[in-house]
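Q: Could you fold this chain for me?
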Amino acid sequence: MRFFSKFTIICNTCFLLAVVAWYLETQQFHAGKNDQLMPLPWLEGILVIIGYSAIFINLFYLLVWAILNLFKKAQQIPRWMVIFNAIVFLLQVYFHFFLK
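A: Sure. Below is the predicted structure, expressed as structure tokens.
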């Protein structure tokens, strides 16, 4: 479960970076600039793919964590990881269903 929580944090960080890149690109588009935000489009594409699929990974992580806590299984996961993933999951739901 520790590896899965670290993997989820990496995916959530990619999501946050993808949202920042999306916001900056929409601001450049409104300003009339057509340049890319990052000079490496493949890197931006990887961030977007991992970041946008992070909502499913995060949902699965939170469900597994809740089930393990429900059955009182001992876990060695720091609480800040769970809190960070829960907050980012709320941001992901807002971004995917209410913002876009």
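A (continued): The two ends are 32 Å apart (CA to CA).
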